[in-house]
Amino acid sequence: MPVLAWRPDCISQDGHEHKRLRGAVKDSLESFDRRAIRRHVHRRSHQLVDGFAGAGHVELVGRFAELLPMMVLTDLFGLPDDEGARLVEASRQLVKGTEKALEADRHIHEILGRLVVEKHRAPGPDLASWLIAHEANLDDEEVRQHLRLVLVLANETTTNLMVNTLRMVLTDPRFRGTLDGGRMTLQAAVEQILWDEPPLMVLPGRFPTHDMEIAGREVREGDLLLLCVAAGNVDPAIGRTAGEEMYGNRSHLAFNSGPHECPGQDIGRAVTGSGIETLLARLPDLRLAVPEDELTWTATSWSRRLDALPVRFTPRHARNPFAPPPAPRSDTVTATGVTAAGATAAGAAPASAGDTAPAPRQRPPRRWRRLVRPGDAAGPGRQHPTG
Ligand code: HEM
């Protein structure tokens, strides 16, 4: 199973090697400006909503939650838009461990291998270029492996978080009522989901390097350990019962903790929060189109995901009010993926209702200008400037 196999990436390492590799990923991820990422997510979300706003109904898993994280990731990676749809499918096959998993993994490596070659030739202010240039001196194989790690992990987890939060928003009176003007914010709703339905319920692949005892259990060298963080979130030792309201408390295990704690959690939260915020702002009377007890899930070894989340809403024909001026080509969303042309629009991210950043002015369409932290165009730990 590709998910369990050892790889030269930070998740498979400990000690000095882990520090070196994780440092490169963490520094590079931290080079992205968080407010700019949110603006970027708003723009991509509007693009997706534009694809179904006039219909009055849509299936949100396939048409929104499974597309948005990958669209944002392709931007952060510096990948062309049209790779997004194929990567969504390949990444899903990989995580599900289907008979197509190995082929999907090869496909992902192929795309990322090409990206590494391209970024050597023409570096930009994106994750791929920053990993290549980082002082930790990653070789090309390590760069490719870390791009793959981030791509697969971030896409799967962020999609799950988004699907689970959407379901709660649509069905749970605590959230629905409160989002309509009550006491719980969307951010608190996201944390509640991270407690109750962590996007990765089981963490794969820890192989002890010697015999040991963990919590009274004997574990042998080379055993496969599967860590169930979902169970950890309701461990009687912390005195919490399943479903208990946590009021935005972030001390859950959904992002793991310790040396391997997720370095992309802020990005995952930003994509989920800003994506759902935009969806609800555009379609405020969004409601489930089927009885809640008709919803079905499919589980993998690591998580479970709703098969579909059909919703209805009042059709809205007007294009989003924050749309940039028409691009030379239009963006199209299909049930199976995104064929986003108009890539030049990437340089003109819209403001949103909750986004106080000044509206972008007409400038050359260089999306990196809005993704890089101000004054940090080269990112930290860089050997040479990339932009
Ligand atoms: C809501 C979404 C997310 C959740 C729930 C999540 C969860 C996790 C968890 C549980 C781990 C630890 C895995 C382990 O120890 O086996 C992890 C590690 C990691 N995550 Fe996330 N993640 C999310 C989003 C992201 C995003 C958006 C990125 C990057 C853009 C990212 C990058 C990483 C990386 C690079 C690691 C490996 C860290 C290491 O081993 O030192 N994650 N994530």
Overview of the structural elements:
This protein has 13 helices and 11 strands. The protein is mainly alpha-helical. The chain has a domain at 18-183 and 264-292: Orthogonal Bundle (Cytochrome p450), CATH 1.10.630. It has a 3-stranded antiparallel beta sheet. A hairpin with a 2-residue loop joins strand 3 (212-214) and strand 4. Helix 6 crosses helix 8. The two termini are 38 Å apart. Mean pLDDT is 82; it is low at 326-370, 375-380 and 383-387. Protoporphyrin IX containing FE (HEM) binds at residues 10-11, 22, 25, 29, 149-150, 153-154, 157-158, 161, 199-200, 203, 254-256, 260, 262-265, 267-268.
* Shape label: globular
Q: Helix amount, in percent? A: 40-55%
CATH architectural designation of the domain at 18-183 and 264-292: Orthogonal Bundle
Q: Could you list the spans in which at least 5 consecutive residues all have pLDDT below 50? A: 326-370, 375-380, 383-387
Largest pleated sheet = 3 strands, antiparallel
Q: With helices defined by DSSP (H or I, 4 residues minimum), what is the helix count?
A: 13
Number of strands: 11
Specify Rg, calculated over alpha carbons.
21 Å
Beta-sheet strand percentage?
5-15%
Q: Report the bound ligands by name, code or SMILES.
A: protoporphyrin IX containing FE
Order of helices and strands: HHEHHHHHHHHEEEEHHEEEEEEH
Fold-level CATH name of the domain at 18-183 and 264-292 = Cytochrome p450
Q: What is the CATH C-level name of the domain at 18-183 and 264-292? A: Mainly Alpha
Could you give the order of strands across the largest sheet?
1-9-6
Q: Overall mean pLDDT score?
A: 82
CATH superfamily of the domain at 18-183 and 264-292: Cytochrome P450
**Ends: how far apart?**
38 Å
Structural class: mainly alpha
